[in-house]
Amino acid sequence: MIHVYIETLGCPRNIVGSEIIAHYLEAKGLKIVDSPQIADVLIINTCAFIKDAELESRERIHTLRQTYPHKKIIVTGCLSERYGCNPFNNTTNIIATSQEDLNAILNAILYGDTPPVLSLHQVTRYDYLPRKRLDTYPYAYIEISRGCNRDCTFCTIPQIKGKLRSKPMNSIIHEATQLIESGVKEIILVAQDLTSYGEDLYGEPHLLQLVEQLAELPDLYLLRLLYLHPTAVTVELVKLVNDHPKLASYLHIPIQHVSTRILKLMGRQMSRKDIDRLLDTIARYGPSLSLRTDIIAGFPTETDTEFDDLIEFLLNSPFRHINIFPFSREPHTLAAELPQLPKEVIDDRTSILTEIAREKAATINSKLVGNTLEVIIDEPIEVNTFRAHSEYECPEVDTTIYVEGDTQPGSIEKVKVIATFDYEINAKLLA
């Protein structure tokens, strides 16, 4: 029996892809193992949407190649999909495939086949495929669509993943039901753009209808939404997330910037006034929501005044979780053709915004000392210490809660916050 090790880099969408690959290969008689040392074949599901992610993928493949020179390595995911070929040319024992071309992955393992990498621009459908869980966390991701129809000038995702392809609603309900029956407490919906869900299938967005149906599933504890385009966050969605007991009090809305001029150059189809109106809507209809956003530092032509305005906005904004990305000049994007800022300016602005994000998180978290939170226990860290999260934090990317006490993963517990530090909350289990 061939033993296969799968390593996942990048975003949660890749986790879903790896689990689909794992199930497919096991159904074909291969065995999935959790260590490259005992594997015959290594699959690396890569990320490459910006330079840093591509570099991380290449370095990891190189490390595995050096450590296991005689083992076959299958490179799949964004790195091979972005370039449409083997990014390592004719390097012995490295084969490139698309994450979605399951048969090509199987044939590469069994026979060493090296077919052309499937272009996802040729794929017009996305539907449910069974998954093999590769972790035991009490939360799981469901990718409700792939690809994107938006034209953000800095983004490579449409180049890599193609146009929007939504998964049918009944398939998503089936997938969620299976995950819940397996013991999953929290479902996290992901996509390149969650708010466009269903446009290709139903002629208009159907995210609200999907969320309403998922929230009614029995035994689901929590449903969380990631990657919401700010132009499509409606009053109805805000009200639903704020009011429904099974929806996490949490919205991830990447705004990227607040300068109207920069937003136009980014192709974001919104202005500073639109952002202010959206935040007013959330303040009115979703006052209890925990907000997360993404910001690009050092976008081409960003002036000192525009950067100062961005700082002032972030200092006074309601966003609790702020993720800062330095601008990455990506080939074949419109933003790459604009006049670029020097690297040292981008780095300095990234550092300043990252510190602001840290200070905001630290200040907000410090106000929780003495409060009681309801948390999901995620995994043990050491004896009687566990990683956990509440509805106000997305696991693995936001502030982490560390819980002391006698419990077990998957439990829903009440805890008392005893101390905080930057992106950490320390809490004790309540009797």
Describe the structure in your own words.
- The chain is α/β, with parallel strands linked by helices.
- The chain has three domains: 3-121, Rossmann fold; 139-363, pyruvate-formate lyase- activating enzyme; 372-429, Beta Barrel (OB fold (Dihydrolipoamide Acetyltransferase, E2P)), CATH 2.40.50.
- Helices cover 34% and strands 23% of the residues.
- The chain is built from 13 helices and 18 strands.
- It has helices spanning 12-27, 51-67, 78-83, 102-111, 157-161, 169-181, 199-202, 207-215, 235-243, 260-266, 272-285, 304-316, 343-366; strands at 3-8, 31-33, 41-46, 72-77, 94-96, 139-143, 145-146, 165-166, 186-190, 222-225, 250-252, 290-297, 319-326, 372-382, 385-390, 400-404, 412-421, 424-429.
- Helix 12 runs parallel beside helix 13 (343-366).
- The chain is globular and about 60 Å long.
- The model has no long low-confidence stretch (mean pLDDT 94).
